[in-house]
Amino acid sequence: MVAALREARHVVVLTGAGVSAESGVPTFRDAQTGLWARYDATALATPDAFRADPALVWGWYEWRRAAMMRAAPNPAHHAIAALAKQVPALTVITQNVDDLHERAGSAGVVHLHGRLMQPRCFQCGTPWRYPVGIPDEPEGGRRVTPPDCPRCASPIRPGVVWFGEGLPADEWQSALAAAAGCDLMLAIGTSAMVYPAAELPQIAVNTGALLVQINPQSTSLDGIAHWNLPGAAGITLPALLH
Ligand code: BJW
Predict the structure, then answer these.
(1) If you compute the radius of gyration of the chain from its CA atoms, what whole number of angstroms results?
(2) CATH number of the domain encompassing residue 81
(3) EC number(s) on record (predicted)?
(4) Do residues 147 and 69 touch, judged by C-beta distance below 8 A?
(5) Which of the residues are catalytic?
(6) What atom in ligand 1 is closest to the CA of residue 45?
(7) Which terminal Cβ of the chain has fewer Cβ within 10 Å, N or C?
């Protein structure tokens, strides 16, 4: 597996919430600690939820934004950034809405599910900038009325992709091209339950790439991965890449 990594010409690293877990950012589907074990996804992560109760949704994302701003990249993020200097080409594709890959030094990260730090108008899409500073939100957030769009006065929404929404077209096309063109994909810390992102490892394998999975739990990728490395990304990845 180490030899395959050394010989690879184009490596794709596909990350999910598990890569940020050791930074203290909760995953979605882990039992007990995952966000969906504690909060109702349908009341928080859909366009209908925002239409029904924008203050509930905005406040919950303010809490998550505060937690993300206080978090720091962990050894897995740093190992991925370092790997880019050791292989001819590397593309990081993340489902995460945090900026921990960028803060570890990765460039050109493809964000399939948006970026929490890039909110925009719910109606007209005009980008909006957060004020400087970290909001002080309690666990789970409180109701916070979202700001109004300076252009059309509609509410500003978090810059993420909710269930039922299409992925950003450019990012999805980049991800498809990278998955189909790579010769090795590392799938790290994703349950591979959310589509269409979960299709990418299969696309890579179908076009001849080797697939390495790093995850302490089993996933639907177990059967197609050439190597399954059970363990925490922040320990397994630096050990693999040193
Ligand atoms: C560790 C670790 C450690 C822990 N080290 N590992 C086909 C079939 C069925 C349904 C669909 C389908 N195609 C589309 C759908 C609908 C839907 C979908 O997939 N639903 C499924 C849940 C069934 N998809 C969509 O709606 C998508 N849009 C779409 O398809 O558009 C086309 C369309 C348009 C209109 C109508 C119809 C279709 C959009 C999906 C958007 C997902 N959004 C979220 C929230 C983002 C905002 C936010 O942050 O709040 O994205 S949901 C959530 O799941 C988040 C994540 O990015 C995403 C993936 O989760 P991830 O990263 O895999 O995290 P977990 O928690 O699931 O797993 C963590 C893993 O880490 C675990 O395995 C742990 O073991 C591991 N781990 N510690 C390494 N230390």
Answers:
(1) 18
(2) 3.40.50.1220
(3) 2.3.1.286
(4) no
(5) 113
(6) 50
(7) C
ipTM of the complex: 0.96
96 is in an annotated binding site: yes
Whether 59 and 41 map to the same domain: the answer is: yes
Q: Is the peptide bond before 138 cis (omega within 30 degrees of 0)?
A: no
Task: Give the sign of the dihedral formed by CA 81, CA 228, CA 115, CA 76.
Answer: negative
Q: Spell out the per-residue pLDDT of the chain, length 242, in tens.
A: 889 998 999 999 999 999 999 999 999 999 989 999 999 999 999 999 999 999 999 999 999 999 999 999 999 999 999 999 999 999 999 999 999 999 999 999 999 999 999 999 999 999 999 999 999 999 999 999 999 999 999 999 999 999 999 999 999 999 999 999 999 999 999 999 999 999 999 999 999 999 999 999 999 999 999 999 999 999 999 999 88
Position of tokens 């949704």? 57
Q: How far is the CA of 242 from the centre of ligand 1 (A)?
A: 30
Q: Where are the alpha helices (DSSP H) in 71-153?
A: 75-83, 100-104
**Structural domain harbouring 173:** 1-24+73-114+166-242
217 annotated to a ligand binding site: yes
The encoded tokens of residue 27 equal 């995953």
